[in-house]
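Re: your question about Dihydropteridine reductase

S., sorry for the slow reply, the queue was backed up all week. Below is exactly what I fed in.
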Amino acid sequence: MRVLVYGGRGALGGSIVDHFKAKNATVVNVDLHANEKADENIALDLSQDWTAQEAAVLAKLDGHFDGVFCVAGGWAGGNAAADDMVKNADLMWKQSVWSSAIAARIAAKHLKEGGLLQLTGAAPALGGTPGMMGYGMAKAAVQQLTKSLAEDGSGLPKGASVVALLPVTLDTPMNRKWMPKADFGTWTPLAWIAEHLEKWTTDAASRPANGALLKIVTEGGKTTTTEH
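Result:
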């Protein structure tokens, strides 16, 4: 099994890299920094624009992948009255939309027939996000991209599936640092994401519907999903 993790140095990406390595998979990481546990690392250059980043990543890839997972992203707040609203929206677009579009291009060229492409949306972006407009805009774009990629003529390989994960809150070290008094039983464990990505990669019949926006909710330590 060979997979690519776009954002494999972050908390979620690192968990996915660890999980697939434990399953003896070959893992390629695309990120600003290397993940020493990955078999191959492709470093992104923030000085490059969107098209230059795409060209640089694609030039360093060969072969095919069973799964392409894009978990790159970030968060920034701000409503329309905030002075940094557009600045934050620009950052969110670069972190979530640039990465997702390049992941889609990777999948079109290097995903195996019947393979899995995973993108990362956000549950709040199913509705309005007045206090984090740039974030909501970017995640809504990723979710629309997911729907488009699931349609005939999208350019993905034959039999390939695409799903967007829409978590509410992930149980990451950074979230625990900034929200130490939160109810961690309502946060989705990173291992849950990694385990399900492996299951969906190896067993196509277990996957959510092609194009699903999979809202992930954890309550009382139990995680459930709803397809949108």
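The helical segments are 11-22, 50-59, 85-110, 133-149, 173-178, 190-202. The longest helix spans residues 85-110.

Happy to talk it through on Thursday.
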